[in-house]
Amino acid sequence: MKKKLLKINNLSVKVAGKQLLKQINLQIKPGEVHALMGPNGSGKSSLALSLAGHPDYQVVMSQSTTPVVTLDGQDLLNLSPDKRAGLGLFLAFQQPAEVPGVRINQFLRQAHQTLFADKSRKKYASAYQFYKYLDQVAEEIGVNRSLLGRNLNEGFSGGEKKQLEMLQLVVLEPKYAILDETDSGLDVDALKIVAKAVKLVQSKSKTGVLIITHYLRILEHIKPEFVHVLVDGQIKDSGGYELAKKLEKTGYKSKLSGG
Ligand SMILES: Nc1ncnc2c1ncn2[C@@H]1O[C@H](COP(=O)(O)OP(=O)(O)O)[C@@H](O)[C@H]1O
Ligand SMILES: [Mg+2]
């Protein structure tokens, strides 16, 4: 049996010749919630983009034959971004794209059908059934249902885009989800939606979640079991939720000089 986990093993990444990430090690098991914290420019988004397969982010290959990133035992790095998504990796970014002319509910149904070719046919045979399910999820996590018939992210506020991303997260039931700065610029109500969505996928879909943030605010709602601190491209510390609380008091400075 292959071990179920998202495993990052000595990941080093370069962009345009500059090393942004240095030997990152991280393991996320199904149903676990991890937070990755760190100051601006420490490499948090670079980690998310590298895992997504962004072509600018060059993974430095070591001599070792051990794969650098595996998802439930599958080597991730030799797969295209869409194949990674097909395996169950979900990424939510700081700036979600606008797709004019594509309605959210149609888009989600399409995405859901593609991902669950067999299951979705059984579960939600008709568009009506799927939209009913979508309404139910929106209600459950507190997303404004009037958004659902609109075009994807077109003319949406930052907070509304995030609401829809959280809806996608719950509906697509990924194995692992990486949420990059999902909380920046969000009001308290939107933060609560993010927290509800994370807790829902954790319990319902056993999704392993990596929340990337430099604020404690969102973590107060989610209380992750695992916290990692990224400074200057390196993980300098790992611990439980108490580490996040400590950082709130001391800031990242104590981590800057090797500590
Ligand atoms: N595509 C890129 N080209 C050049 N430099 C980049 C690129 N992406 C990130 N960087 C640089 O890498 C460092 C880390 O950036 P980033 O991963 O966005 O940090 P964070 O998300 O922690 O704020 C920064 O110095 C940033 O300017
Ligand atoms: Mg960032």
Give the SSE layout.
Layout: E1 6-15, E2 18-28, E3 33-37, H1 44-52, E4 58-59, E5 69-71, E6 74-75, H2 81-86, E7 89-92, E8 99-103, H3 104-115, H4 119-123, H5 127-141, E9 151-152, H6 158-172, E10 176-180, H7 188-204, E11 208-213, H8 217-222, E12 226-231, E13 234-239, H9 241-250, H10 253-256
Parallel strand pairs: 3-11, 3-12, 7-10, 10-11
Antiparallel strand pairs: 1-2, 1-4, 1-5, 5-6, 8-9, 12-13
Helix pairs in contact: 3-6, 5-6, 6-7
Bound molecules: adenosine-5'-diphosphate and magnesium ion.
Adenosine-5'-diphosphate binds at residues 15-16, 20, 38, 40-46, 56.
**Which cofactor or ligand species appear?**
adenosine-5'-diphosphate, magnesium ion
Give the uncertain stretches in residue-range form. Answer: none
Neighbour order of strands in the largest sheet: 7-10-11-3-12-13
> How is the main sheet built?
6 strands, mixed
Structural class: alpha/beta
DSSP strand content: 25-35%
Rounded mean pLDDT score: 88
Structure, explained:
This protein is α/β, with parallel strands linked by helices and 259 residues long. The protein has one domain (6-256): 3-Layer(aba) Sandwich (Rossmann fold), CATH 3.40.50.300. 38% of the residues lie in helices and 26% in strands. It is built from 10 helices and 13 strands. It has helices spanning 44-52, 81-86, 104-115, 119-123, 127-141, 158-172, 188-204, 217-222, 241-250, 253-256; strands at residues 6-15, 18-28, 33-37, 58-59, 69-71, 74-75, 89-92, 99-103, 151-152, 176-180, 208-213, 226-231, 234-239. The strands form 3 sheets. The chain has a 6-stranded mixed β-sheet with strand order 7-10-11-3-12-13, sandwiched between helices. Strands 1, 2, 4, 5 and 6 form a 5-stranded antiparallel β-sheet that branches. It has a two-stranded antiparallel ribbon with strand order 8-9. α7 links the parallel β10 and β11. It is globular and about 50 Å long. It starts with 5 loop residues before the first strand and ends with a helix. The protein binds adenosine-5'-diphosphate (ADP) and magnesium ion (MG). Adenosine-5'-diphosphate binds at residues 15-16, 20, 38, 40-46, 56.
